[in-house]
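Dear Dr. H.,

I hope your travels went smoothly. While you were away I took the liberty of generating a structure for the chain from your last submission, since the lab meeting agenda had it listed for discussion. I wanted you to have the full record in hand beforehand rather than looking at slides cold. The sequence, exactly as received, is reproduced here:
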Amino acid sequence: MIACRLSLLSLLTLTLLAGCSTPPPKPPVPRVQVVLLPQEDGRPTGVVVQSGNASQTLVEPFQRASSRANQAPVVDQADPEQVRQTYDPLFKIAPPKPVRYVLFFQPGGTRLTGESQAELPRIQADTARFPGVEILVVGHTDTKGNGEGNDALSLRRAQQVRELLLQQGLPASRVEAVGRGERELAVQTGDEVDEPRNRRVEIQLR
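The corresponding predicted structure, in token form, is as follows:
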């Protein structure tokens, strides 16, 4: 009988404690923020932010959309300096933007134009300042001649520029040369058209 009373008392005590205890607070719903950064070249840009069944479009630099789970985004204008200070650690670890250079050639061969020849030392110095990056040299032609011949010519142009870059002491394993022939025209033309802007090599730092 005593054992039964103790069990009943223990059960009652546990029930009272359970009834009086306060449930742990729910964790706060995380807030998501999206800030539209300006383009370096000033070109217009935009982004659509969607949350739940609603969406907002950001089109102005430093516009900000804030939302919580399944709630409509709220748009306001962020302070540029505050954005830079708040997200400075992210800006510092952001991968470098791809760098691209273009050199142009005289018709039918691998001789650079005078303007591109004058530009070459700056490009050589710039590529030497990026240790560890991969460099892709892509040769192109205009539509003069046949496709097979232009494939070979574009590759020779790329290989020549590659050799000029290697003269700066870059490891050969970092610099790749490929030819695209007349497949990727900078300026669309018909066949057998002499177009100076298509006779080029593009140097891409990745």
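Two observations you may find useful: The longest helix spans residues 147-166. Confidence is low (pLDDT under 50) at residues 1-19.

With kind regards,
E. W.
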